[in-house]
Structure prediction request, 410 residues.
Amino acid sequence: MQFSSALLENAVNEFSRLPGIGKKTALRLVLHLLKQDPKEVERFSEVIAKMRQEIKFCQRCHNVSDGDICSVCANSMRRQELICVVESIRDVIAIESTQQFSGTYHVLGGVISPLDGIGPDQLTIAALLQRIEKEKTEELIFALSPTIQGDTTIYYIQKKLTGKQVRITTIARGIAFGGELEYADELTLGRSLQNRMPVEKYMNH
Amino acid sequence: MQFSSALLENAVNEFSRLPGIGKKTALRLVLHLLKQDPKEVERFSEVIAKMRQEIKFCQRCHNVSDGDICSVCANSMRRQELICVVESIRDVIAIESTQQFSGTYHVLGGVISPLDGIGPDQLTIAALLQRIEKEKTEELIFALSPTIQGDTTIYYIQKKLTGKQVRITTIARGIAFGGELEYADELTLGRSLQNRMPVEKYMNH
Prediction:
């Protein structure tokens, strides 16, 4: 692309460095900003810069936070003895959006994946183990990807907790509500038959 | 979506105001920026703000410009007596990217569209007419959308130029190179038959 303005070109280049944003989309976004009030664009720019400069990670659960401790950990209404172990901040947002979980989180920062050079030391597993020890955690719920890497991570942490008084569970896998049986993959369908549940329990939800 | 950080939430909201960017995409972009070096994000933010604050519109052709006169108008190698009339800055970028045009531009800022409340006064038509008068323009090439609005705009400007010594043309319409005949719309195919060109002329390109 040939731009007649270096200012425009630089802005397009910056946007096109974002994931999933090509040159044409970047140009569309920049031309949109160009039509906005300069104050609106200044606010856009400031909010982004401020987010990156000031955002912190919760010292307890490694979730994003505006302070040293995140709003979930700081909330005394949440069941602090219940920890949901997730891979990323995105998973915390997904679970919080269900409004069905009253415990706390622990963000691992990924899953064990030797091929990608990610071992237990690259994740926040040591901090999780210390936390369980110190806080007398009652239950650990794993909400990780149903992949070999996710399963390896569960297995590794479970091994480390041998002999400890902590209940270890994972979220239910099965056919999604609204999911059509014929489109479900065989593994999910097979497992959902094995792990069938009493109708009374299903109806209570 | 439930965020545990107001900083994160504000950043996601700002991104999701951009056209074509929903909440989920906005979150993906913000989490990407969160992983980048703070200096990189600061540069992103600064380049966007600077673009909006400092960009100007060329006083002659209304294209975006870093100075009072854009780089196309300021280039003495370009044929200043040849003006390509376009709707938007995006069209200038598209034509410049072909590297086939050696004239200058005039950005109308849209086309006449009474239903959308856009009349000749909302566009830069008066400036174009003054410019043609003053600069003794030899040729005006219209590169507008092939719509009723585009055609109305051509008709309006052409009427205003009655009696003036200026050649008025429009870019060729026809089947795209690499376009399959069977997928072409009837109007384009019909017109491309009417406006057929000598093979010698075609082969010379």
The radius of gyration of chain A is 22 Å. The first helix of chain A runs from residue 6 to 16. Helices of chain A lie at 6-16, 23-35, 38-54, 89-98, 125-135, 148-160, 186-194, 199-203. Residues 78 and 102 of chain A are 5 Å apart (CA to CA).
